[in-house]
Write a structure and sequence with these properties.
The complex is a heterodimer of chains A (421) and B (320). Chain A contains eleven helices and 19 strands. Chain A has 421 residues and is α+β, with helices and mostly antiparallel strands. Chain A has a single domain, classed as 2-Layer Sandwich (Alpha-Beta Plaits). In chain A, strand 10 (226-229) and strand 11 form a beta hairpin. Chain B has a five-stranded mixed β-sheet. Chain B is built from 14 helices and five strands. Chain B folds into three domains: 2-132, no CATH class; 168-249; 254-320, no CATH class. In chain B, helix 2 (32-42) packs antiparallel against helix 3 (48-65), helix 8 (168-192) runs antiparallel to helix 9 (200-211) and helix 8 packs across helix 11 (234-242). In chain B, a hairpin with a 5-residue loop joins strand 1 (2-4) and strand 2 (10-13). Classes of the chains: A alpha+beta (421), B alpha/beta (320).
Chain lengths: 421, 320
């Protein structure tokens, strides 16, 4: 097995293929603090790609309530448990998060799903994983408002479901799509090499003509975003709305456009882009690309379960109110710093956060024009100063897409308006 | 697709169930490669109907080859009665363990013969084929015993449970209790035939104790009447489920713990101890509202208090 560099882990790791990186990489940032689980993204995806016979159980985009929800049910608990069994008490991070873009979260010394495969039988297996049951696939969001299970019975909710919603504790909504990983587990596991990563944008696709329904990818993907379709007997997955990303959508005017799930987001918590890649697999410095800024400069957006080892390209601004231990398990050791910076944003971060969902075109670069000071005060002991800066977004062709300000504009209607008081 | 059981009863399998069971059974199996080689070739067939047929045939062949049908065939073959009373037995895919079970479907078309009208459907999860064969066989035997009971005139099954005083909550209670009793009689018979382990008795007793908490110390002894004895009838099970005490005593008359107050109709364990000793005015008050009431009908303490209080109020001397 070859060795590849995984910057999420801050070290090299086993992977069945030699490293090869696209020119640009499809990536996204979701701000969990703003998600209201309206499921508009879920339905936008469903109504575009998975509305046909045999796809009833497929939700390429989904939003689940954490910690007790999951689609398929218990997906993250199950894979974390398998890893823990493979490497008891060894799934640990060492070193502290640093400014180094080759190891921004420190170093993970445990085993990834590629390294823990050794516990599998037969020995030829390439990835540690499991195949969810029909029951786990068939009921997205079941019991999510009813988290009370039986005491001492793990991985099972109350079977009768007669309790009214009891949120005894914290929760948050986790929106998920395929992470179009840099080291995809689905690709690694496919016995027919039917899965490939596009060299132009890193989108991971399944060649429907090559797939023969072995379901090795379904078993291997730790995020469970490859889904088997019974009536065609092939596996399908999120295609990152690639016609839109290619600028083929008539609405896009030939410019790269964000996916359907991003564009539909009511809570304006999603931003998607195409980041430049270096030949060593690290993101090439692109200081004024908003995704590069959020992930590598402000470091407020973190990968989902980086310890799994696939180097996912979905990043999340973690929720402020959730216990840190849980978040550290989910997003790695960068959580504390990310929440600190997000809760008390500096001038640039505040401006960049205004870029979310002002346009459906992909933003390649932003620029900030400084504005006047509009507020000064303290928040939980921190000094806060707000400036009404203007942030300008540019597309792939270098043309301005839009400009917006930190302070939300207020429009006052004329007094003669029919509904005026 | 249709497959004949040993009894001659046609057993039809859901192709989706067969395919999934074969797929799961072959994971890590030495023959998996050979199966995939054959399956891979079928993707090349361009005609969708022919391709679908070929997939089904392949999975059917492997289903038999892997011996996955053996427990079903055995369980069906044991039920000779089904051959003369049921048209087909369909084995279909359950989406969850909770859904697994057998159902008897009866076509309402009275122009058909009794046998032609009846079909059995058994829902099973594909994963169940991978569990231990004895466990699957026990499950199938249990479910088919339900069907056999339904078809047995001596049992006298009636799909509509009688209406219960007290509303939908009591309907559900009756249904649950009836299920517990029926399961107990079935598993008792299975243990005696050596079809189920002795340990199942404790499970059914636990269900019984939960369904009839009012039986107290007598629970074990009363459970034995269902688990250890036969035959049973639908009517007797219903009678016990509705009112265990009455069913046992054989006399529905008179107040008894857990029975209903003859005035307010609520179940009670606390009856007025000596209703015949109530003051004449109180009895008169009751009879005004319930002309048919007699003291041997009894009444609960709450109703007695109500009428005592009403009498006192009417006799009270108020200064204004």
């Amino acid at each position: 097995m070859s060795q590849v560099y995984n910057w999420h882990l801050g070290r090299k790791m086993d992977y069945p293929f030699e490293a090869a990186y696209p020119k640009r990489q499809f990536a996204f940032v979701f701000n969990i603090n703003r998600c209201i689980a309206c499921q508009t993204c879920t339905m936008a995806c469903k109504s575009t790609w998975t509305f046909s016979k045999g796809q009833e159980h497929m939700w390429w985009a989904n939003v689940e309530t954490k910690p007790y929800g999951g689609y398929p049910q218990f997906w993250d608990m199950k894979i974390l448990k398998l890893l823990e069994e493979a490497d008891p008490d060894g799934q640990r991070w060492t070193d502290k998060p640093a400014g180094n873009s080759k190891a921004p979260y420190g170093r993970f010394d445990g085993q990834t799903i590629f390294e823990a495969r050794k516990m599998l039988k037969p020995g030829s297996s390439r990835v540690l994983g499991y195949l969810p049951t029909d029951e786990e696939w068939n009921f997205p969001n079941i019991y999510e408002d009813n988290p009370v299970g039986k005491k001492g019975v793990p991985n099972q909710f109350d079977q009768t479901g007669v309790e009214l919603p009891v949120h005894k504790t914290w929760f948050f909504y986790l929106a998920r799509i395929c992470n179009h990983c840099t080291y995809p587990a689905c690709l690694a596991a496919c016995p027919r090499k039917a899965i490939y990563k596009r060299p132009e944008d890193g989108i991971v696709l399944i060649d429907q003509k090559e797939c023969r329904g072995y379901r090795k990818c379904v078993e291997a993907c730790p995020y469970k975003k490859a889904m088997y379709r019974g009536n065609t007997r092939v596996t399908e997955k999120c295609i990152a709305c690639y016609p839109r990303v290619e600028g083929k959508d008539p609405e896009s005017g030939g410019q790269p456009m964000e996916t359907r799930c991003m564009a539909a987001c009511i809570g304006q918590m999603r931003m998607q882009g195409l980041v430049k890649m270096s030949q060593d697999g690290i993101w090439a410095e692109d200081r004024h690309n908003p995704l590069y800024y959020l992930v590598h400069v402000a470091k407020v957006a973190l990968p989902l379960y980086p310890q799994l080892g696939t180097q996912p390209n979905g990043y999340y601004i973690p929720p402020r109110w959730v216990p840190r231990d849980y978040l550290r398990q989910m997003f790695g050791p960068g959580v504390d710093g990310a929440i600190e910076r997000y809760a008390y944003p500096d001038r640039e971060l505040l401006a960049v956060l205004q870029l979310f969902r002002r346009s459906n075109l992909i933003i390649f670069r932003y620029e900030i024009k400084e504005g006047p000071k509009i507020y000064e005060g303290t928040l939980r002991g921190h000094k806060i100063t707000l400036y009404n800066d203007t942030v300008i977004a540019y597309g792939q062709n270098g043309k301005e897409i839009f400009r917006t300000t930190v302070e939300e504009p207020i429009y006052v209607r004329s007094a003669q308006h029919a509904n005026s008081i | 697709m249709i497959e004949k059981g040993e009894t001659g009863l046609p057993v039809r399998y859901d192709p989706l169930l067969i395919e999934e069971a074969v797929f799961l059974a072959l994971r890590g199996h030495p023959d998996a490669k050979r199966y995939h080689q054959k399956r891979d070739r079928l993707y090349e067939i361009s005609d969708p109907e022919e391709r679908e047929r070929s997939f089904q045939n392949l999975h059917q062949a492997w289903f038999s080859r892997l011996g996955l049908a053996s427990q079903i065939e055995k369980a069906v073959a044991e039920r000779h009665q089904l051959n003369s009373t049921v048209k087909t037995c369909v084995i279909a895919r359950a989406t969850s363990k909770k859904e697994e079970g057998a159902e008897l479907f009866v076509n309402p078309d009275e122009g058909l013969s009794g046998k032609e009208r009846r079909n059995v459907r058994i829902l099973i999860c594909p994963e169940s084929f991978l569990e231990s064969p004895p466990l699957l066989l026990t499950f199938l035997r249990h479910e088919l015993q339900h069907i056999t009971d339904m078809l047995d005139p001596g049992f006298g099954y009636n799909p509509a449970l009688p209406a219960v005083e007290g509303g939908p909550t009591y309907d559900r209670l009756l249904q649950n209790r009836y299920c517990v009793l029926w399961d107990a009689t079935i598993d008792g018979r299975m243990v005696r035939r050596g079809w189920a382990p002795e340990s199942i008795r404790a499970e059914r007793l636990n269900d019984f104790a939960q369904a009839f908490p009012m039986l107290g110390d007598e629970t074990g002894q009363l459970f034995g009447r269902f688990f250890d004895q036969e035959p049973h009838t639908h009517a007797k099970l219903i009678a016990f489920a509705r009112d265990p005490r009455t069913a046992l005593a054989g006399s529905p008359e008179g107040p008894h713990p857990g029975g209903r107050c003859s005035l307010c109709r609520f179940p009670t364990y606390v009856f007025e101890p000596n209703p015949e000793c109530l003051p004449a005015e109180v009895i008169s008050q009751i009879c005004q509202d319930f002309p048919q009431w007699r003291s041997d009908h009894g009444l609960c303490e709450q109703c007695a208090d109500l009428y005592k209080g009403r009498t006192q109020f009417e006799n009270a001397q108020f200064p204004f």
